Amino acid sequence: MSTPIFWWSLAAMLVLLELVTGTVYLLMVAIGFAAGGIAAHFGLQDSSQLLIAGLVCGAATLGWHSLRSRRKEPAPQADKSVQMDIGETVEVRAWESNGTARVMYRGAEWSVQSSETASVGTLLSTGLHRIIEVRGNTLIVTPTKTFSAAPAETSSTANG
């Protein structure tokens, strides 16, 4: 088997392995092996092919890692695409002294904690709250902003 075919075969096997495992880092190594294959097509020595493949593997892996580390992703417990409960509402009827409450939600009783920081002696608001995070089996909620329409004015005099 010629050297370019060897490099391209290794790159193809890594791409297939990446499809099975789902890790992007194998693609970065496959890019390095493809660079080794290109170097082999240009007729470079085996040591130069290995050096080029290694450098491209390292650069691609470090580049991907730095790209992923710069991107800020929401925590999974506060991500609506991960937690279907984010954005839903629950009704809190009464708060315990420790700042928690129990509510019925999706046919089960859940523990609720307010996202508001309540100082000693202040009461947390009751009523409808929106779920903003799920920590284990505790729902973290914030009060919903409800706007009620002004009552219609009625005329106390009747037309004769």
Helical stretch tally: 3
Instruction: Give me the strand/helix succession.
Output: HHHEEEEE
Number of strands: 5
Structural class, by secondary structure, is: alpha+beta
**What percent of residues are in strands?**
15-25%
Main sheet: which strands, in order across? 1-4-5-3-2
Rg, Cα atoms, Å = 30 Å
Describe it.
The chain has 160 residues and is of the alpha+beta class. Helix content is 38%, strand content 20%. The protein contains 3 helices and 5 strands; from the N terminus they run H-H-H-E-E-E-E-E. The protein has helices spanning 3-21, 25-41, 46-70; strands at residues 89-92, 100-105, 108-114, 127-135, 138-143. Strands 1-4-5-3-2 form a 5-stranded mixed sheet, with no helix packed on it. Strand 4 and strand 5 (138-143) form a beta hairpin. The radius of gyration is 30 Å and the shape is rod-shaped. The termini are far apart. 15% of the residues are buried.
Give a quick rundown of the structure.
The protein is built from three helices and five strands. With 160 residues, the chain is an alpha+beta fold.
Task: Record keyword descriptors for this entry.
single chain; 160 residues; alpha+beta; OB fold (Dihydrolipoamide Acetyltransferase, E2P); 2 domains; 5-stranded mixed sheet; 20% strand; disordered C terminus
Secondary-structure topology with pairs:
Blueprint: H1 3-21, H2 25-41, H3 46-70, E1 89-92, E2 100-105, E3 108-114, E4 127-135, E5 138-143
Helix pairs in contact: 1-2, 2-3
